Amino acid sequence: LDLDANARIKTLTGKTCKKYKAAGIGSYPDEDENCLPELTEYMYNHDLDGDADNGEQKAITYTIGFHSDQKLLSDAATKGGGVYYTTNSAEGLADAFQGAVTGILSTSSTFTAPSVAVDTFTRTESRNEVFFAMFEPRAGTDWPGNIKKLRIDIDDGVATLVDADGLAALDDSGNIADTARTYWSSGDDGSTVDKGGVGQLLAERDPDSRVIKTNTGTGGALQDFVPESITETAFGVASETELLDLFGVDTRSELDNLLAWARGWTDSSKSETRGWILGDMLHSRPLVLNYGARGSHTATNPDIRIVVGTNAGFLHMFDNADGGEDWAFFPKELAAVLDQRRDNATGRDPVYGVDASPVLYSKDINRDGTIDSTAGDKLYVYFGLRRGGTSYYALDVSNPDSPAFLWKIDGNTAGFGELGQSWSVPVLTRVPGYASDGVPKPVLVFGAGYDTAKDSKASVATADTEGRGVYIVDAVTGALVWGVTPADNALKNLQLTGMQHSVAAGVSVVDSNGDELTDRIYAADTGGNIWRVDLPGNTLPTSAQTTWRALKFAALNTSAADGHAGDRRFFYAPDVVRTVSRHY
Description:
By secondary structure, the protein is of the alpha+beta class. The protein contains eleven helices and 29 strands.
């Protein structure tokens, strides 16, 4: 217990110091004066190098109580602007260190490296435009997110990312330069997450002008996200008390405040707007939708929209022309997310909403490159929730200004009892025997999901109770076409008792004979296995399940032999490389 610097700390800070209990530490008395909190407070509130020309250099203190919960450490972190963690295990200690490091690196006021603020910024290209999704980890639960746009400029065969002013947008470290002005931004915004981009436009907008929909109508039909739509009937509960419990509030007035907050106000009085609305895109990559020469648009200036999910619980559509939000969709199943985000509690686990990447299906009837809903063209968007839940959703966005609900499936949907958290990003394809008037129908193929029992790192992977399988569903109706799971053989299920680990990753599909139909699927599970599913022939299986088949292609988990070192858990789809043999 280091108390030798107390006198010097009191001289430096001009503060008096408290006494703290130190029970169980050697032969020290139960209480001793300790000036650590006063020192961390001083370092947090004073420019440490005394040079006003280079900004404020301050220290932020994070503390960890290992096998102890000490008021001293808590006060030191609080006064030092950081976070206090407690843990009793090595796993928890690692998580505490990770949380502290994340907090340190995301403090934009003291660290200027843009790669830290944006962290995993992902990229989606459309023509010569590039869209960056970014988020900033923070101490609370309400992490901000944003989408920013740059352009690819090609000069003498050299491609350069440029900003809205045509200037090189990246700094020497390959990140967006602080001096860059990204598209849709009025001033230099660089890589600062809560500045510029679609997020600032949304924050500056009148919240009541936003179009927000939720699936509270009959059969999931979209309705306005307003208090009148939030009813016991819509949420399938018997009383208002149960309804309020879903949202984590006690009264209808509190619910009205929460809904107003979600829209962008601080509460239902609508006297003040929130500083930032757009949530983090931790795992959801932006999806670019090109509607072509729709309406007043042309082939050289097409109607382009961007769709992305956030952990604030919304799927957003933004217009590429001006960065404005066209609409947002809030799945009613995410009711609990809103209050958890609003609380913004320090030290809590992150809150997840629409945490997965969307995918699309388009049908351009006359193949003119334009999606015209009045001519029967179709464009559908599909997305899961990943950590946010077990559901998959489909929206009809054929008219980008008027979305419609298509379908939703979850673990309670008939035939999908194996569904875990919906991590697996669906693959759009077509399979043998599933057709209408001889024309193959589009289907989605995805893994049955993630079992959160696999979150534990304390022991090697054991068998799961959900997520064990692969599903094929109709892309238009959401109906189960076929699946392979440990459940009993049935008309639409092949029993595979050996599949005992969840399939969280996406799948890889193969057309082995060039007929534009998927006849083989590869899937990796969280137990270190690779599975192969064969779909031979040109008809769907019957209840006998004797035509399509599945087998374990590889078993790569060697934990039985070498413990944790061989505990392989796959979270990415297998890569498939095909070779062709030629005989002369």
